[in-house]
Amino acid sequence: MTEGETAANSVAGTVRMIEYQGTWVKIIIELADGEEFVVNLLDDKFLAAPLTEGDKVIARWSAEFVHPLTHRGGSSDLARLSGEDFVVLPT
Questions:
Q1: Residue 26: which CATH number?
Q2: Which among 27, 33, 32, 22 is positioned nearest to 53, based on CA atoms?
Q3: Do residues 70 and 86 lie in contact, with contact meaning Cβ atoms separated by under 8 Å?
Q4: How do 56-60 and 36-42 pair as beta strands?
Q5: Domain containing residue 18
């Protein structure tokens, strides 16, 4: 990951919840604006550097894994949209 990708493809926040899901771990990060960001991490990666609730973290990802979402409805109120109103576009 290049320096430019790090800034654009990252979020900082506080770990609010950790759920073990078998072969992976679901981590919920609370962002500064109160929004939640969910990370699904393979358990071997999590166990190599475990987190606890309350930890301050930065989640980063490579731009090659970004899949933009677009709205296919008439309403401009994105807060009321459900998953079926979005489509994942191929990169």
A1: 2.40.50.100
A2: 27
A3: yes
A4: unpaired
A5: 3-88
